Amino acid sequence: MLWLIPLGFIIGAFGTLIGAGGGFVLMPVLILLFPDESPEICTSISLAVVFFNTLSGSGAYARMRRIDYKSALFFSAATIPGAILGAFTTSHISRRLFYTIFGIFMIAAAVFLLLRQNGKREIKKNNPEYHLTRNLVETDGTTHTFSYNPIVGVGLSLFVGYVSSLLGIGGGIIHVPLLVHLLNFPVHIATATSHSILAVMSFTGTVVHITTGTFSHGIWPTIFLSIGVLIGAPLGARLSNRVRGDWIMRGLAVALGFVGIRILVMAL
């Protein structure tokens, strides 16, 4: 299983770069590697690896001061009940239904991102009183000011926690676009904040799988993959300084589409 280490490195670097945790890349690989295993086992491995990836990546983003901690606290709390319910739901759906849901969801998200004008995010000057305004200053002096509806953010996080735990994809591929397009987060702040939220969500889902005994079947793959992601995640965070926000979103869209098509083919 030593070759899982470089695989984990790639997943860690790319997942941290786009704030997605890497689960959306890892899950199709696990499905191909372990075709006889149930979706529940694959999701337990993926969520555990995503936890180590996001834990390492969040440390790197914290040093850059890109994490909105107040928002991350609200949203993390909202993902917990969704993550618990999603982890339990996985064991009650068939393999074909799981693949079909997974594939359709990935393709829909890819189309959404490609159709949006990522580089033309409108910043509203006048916001309702109930909106939460955030001001962040990165280590390099870059200043971000944005405002969003916290009630909408909590509701979206609850949904993300359920879907990501159900599919074992981490949730960043869903959360980052929602933070950017619906909650007005700057792309780089969204990727960093999403990463810290994923750490809480993936840990919650992993604990559920441990308590049910599912995770015991995937301990060794998780160990080798986690070694790789712990090394790759800080690299992905550093690379984010050199990649434009709109290119991050486009890369995310292409990756989603590829994964979705591949999984739908497997469901046929």
- Number of distinct beta strands: 2
Radius of gyration: 17 Å
What is the succession of H and E elements? Answer: HHHHHEEHHHHH
Task: Kindly report the average pLDDT value.
Answer: 83
What gap, in angstroms, lies between the N and C termini?
Answer: 29 Å
Largest sheet, strands/sense/barrel:
2 strands, antiparallel
How much β-strand is present in the residues? under 5%
Indicate the structural class.
mainly alpha
Number of domains: 1
The helix count comes to 10
In terms of per-residue confidence, which ranges show pLDDT below 50 for 5 or more consecutive residues?
none
What is the topology?
Elements: H1 4-18, H2 23-33, H3 39-64, H4 69-90, H5 95-115, E1 132-137, E2 143-148, H6 150-167, H7 172-181, H8 187-212, H9 219-239, H10 245-267
Antiparallel strand pairs: 1-2
